[in-house]
Here is the input.
Amino acid sequence: MSTTDRFDAIVVGGGHNGLVNAAYLAKAGLKTLVLEQRHVVGGAAVTEELVPGFRFTTFSYALSLLRPEIVQELDLVRHGLMVLPMANTFQPGYGGEYLFLGADGHTNYHEIARHSVEDAEAARELSHGVARAARALKPWMDRLPPTPMSGQPEDPAAIDELKAYMAGLDPEVRSLLESFAERSTAEILDEYFEHDLVKALYASSGIIGSRCGPRSKESGLVWLFHKMGDYDGVPGAWGFHKNGNGGFTQVLARAVEASGGSIRTDAPVEAVRYDDGKAVGVTLADGTRVDADLVVSALDPRRTFLGLVDPGDLPTDLVRHIEGFKFQGTAAKVNFALDGLPQFPGLEGREDIYRGFTNIGPSIDYLEEAFADCVEGRYSRRPFIDCCVQSTLDPDMSPPGKHIMSCFVMYAPYHLADGDWDSEREGLGDTVQETVEEFFPGFGDLVLHREIVTPLDIERTIGLSEGNIFAGELFESQLFFNRPAPGWNQYRTPIEGYYQCGSGTHPGGCVSGGPGRLAARRILADRGLGS
Amino acid sequence: MPQTPRTTPFHARVAPLKQTGIWKHWSGYLVPPSYHFSLNHEYYAIRNAAALLDTSPLFKYRISGSGAEAFLCHVLARDVRACRPGRAQYTCWCDERGFVLQDGVILHVKEGEYWLTAAEPTLRYFRNVARAIGSAVEIEDVSLDYGILALQGPRAHDVLSRLTDDATPLRFFGACSTRIAGCDVMISRTGYTGDLGYELWIASPDAETVWDALMSEGGDYNLTPMGTTPLKMARMEAGLLLMGVDFQMSRFAWVDEERDTPLELGWSWMFRKLDSDDRDFIGRSAIQREMEGRTSRWKTVGLAVDWDEYEAVHTEVGLLPPRHEIYRETTMSVYRRGDIEWDYAGYSTSFATSSLLRKPLAIAKVPLDLSEPGAEVDLELSVLHRPRTVLARVERLPFFDPPRKTAAMGGDS
Here is the structure.
């Protein structure tokens, strides 16, 4: 038990926000160390070669909300950033019915018009509305959130500014924002569309990673959140990073090291050490101590406040809030190594249908039934599956002629009413495979290998509590002022020199880097190093 | 085949005639930007012979029922009651704030039945309005049911009258149904070229038959198939605005500066009788306020570039003044002339060098005090990669307006 090293800053957790945060701190001249418990950095954004030649995006699998400022400020292009377009979306239905959207608005019009001419017109209107609503929130996504509880003069000023900003918005945009905040995805979609398949295509964004169905009130905001990003300036569109999101976090790791930061893997942190209310360093699981008077937790709020430090040393209202912070992971991954491309009846041989998201979940009712299973405490008997055959975008993802398919699966509640995830794991895998088979006959014959990642596996492997992929639900009660707790939404903690920078802070989940960047701004400003 | 462009009902005829091998997309359909390497060949067919254009990608609607007129009186900004059966009308529709949603041509086919063409979809919007006011109206999208051909040019009537006598009595913006080559066809004396011309609605299954009849009879009059680029050159001379170029649909704008009111587009003539017009149409109060308060932010005008200056800025640097088949839809800045340099005043949205009129033309948005015919402004060009300005004068639109456009073709006029 000896101190082996001393740094200016230690970032606990090498997820993408930890890496972003560390890169900014290192760039500001701080001797920075990232400590990652696993053998590889990236957290939920990792790519792993589980079968020779097949690269699995074990957890996170697509990119959209990455803050453009980070790309510029950390010079990520120089470090290998390459985001490939996921231009197409394929929504299989029953009996050969499908919806196949691509990059051309007019062509998409005619494709939707096959199902409903009115819906085809409405789709453009909705997309424009969503883009405007998302654009309206962007300035607030990219700045330090104020809190009414700080007692600092800049906070009430920022809150007044926010109020004035909202009041000054185009009334149409404001009422759309209110819609997203107060209404369910299904309710909003009912206003625009009549055809089930069309509604279902849009509804998936409203449930991703969240314990809500398309008819739950919370789903409106979840939907808008997923549309806050862009692909190359196309609002709400998503991309696939070369080599998966693990490829992206390797880019971040290079940015950290290029700025003089260090990364240590296989280095799980046991505790943050503090003395007299001030951070002094960390202790690793093997007893090694590393000193620094600046420690940043990139872990989720539960582990940041209740795991790494003694909650007894924290204000009780904060502890109570964090204890009540909702994680309740409901998503799983099942990833497949495939001998060839799945075939959709009538579109055999069409590779282009996979160049993006393939949404299995052909109606609102289907999604809602899947959610009903979740409420009952079991995984969905017919789950919603968001598939990506990433080898159609990046040949390095699989051996030639073979394919890798990432399946994001909902719902898979962390807390099962009966049994446990270790005994239910294969059953979940079978269910997903059967469901894909139902829409893509012959799918099962293509499967060479499958990887099943339950919410429990997510928690165990990368430490996200209850397997919540956003480090805490993206519900209104857990955003902005309240992420992760009222008064503690500005990346600080009650322990001086101990900060938080994970997705459990503003602006929240997805591979945005926003929390890591804003936390760095907070830290550097507090240390007089900010601009 | 999903995610491939659609083809029009005339595709089998169009494709083999296209010498350039180039297609473009229009509302998700394959269309030729031109058939021939010489754009002017097709352009002069419009001005000197006859040209045939497939405009089937337009959205087509049938609006019918006992409440059709009342519905259209509400949803359209221009008074549709002036459009009697057997007449057509150029019209526009606005949002509540008086910004233009779209323009289009409506045919009053018969009592209680109208056909409308539009550049962008409007079925859901119209139905939503009809539902909101409880109109006894049926609005159908018949876009796939019909192909449309535009037969334009001084010889258009000669060609058409070989196939039907019904075109002859049609006055400008008259419409009637007839039979051509054994097929039912709705014809209107309308077009997007500012010349003599007709547009034909043809049931999709009859499309090739009617095309063949026109091409066969047109041979004697140098009838030429025409693509969309020569059409756009002609429409500029005709002072006809193009949505998506000279103005945007209000619905898809991000900010008000991307929106235009009909008055700002120069369409105040649509509202000449507003005082005696009792209609409660969408956008009325905003338009009325704008008229009364003269609060238009700009006006859309024609600019004719001074040839001497245009030539000079090019010859000064050793270049020939470019004027062959130039048609552009990119913004160019307009400046106020005077002591202040680069005194920004507005912008042009379309620019073309008119071969017939021998001068460069632009459609531009300028402040009201610069909008009267004769007003002088500077238009910014890029000459040898450097910004230069040339004198341009506001001209009354259309730039080109031949008497034959509206002249009687015989029969009763």
Summary: Chain A has a mean pLDDT of 96. The two ends of chain A are 39 Å apart (CA to CA). The interface with chain B takes residues 88, 98, 100, 102, 104, 106-107, 109-111, 117-118, 120-122, 124-125, 128, 132, 135, 347, 352 of chain A (CB under 8 Å). Residues 328-462 of chain A form one domain.
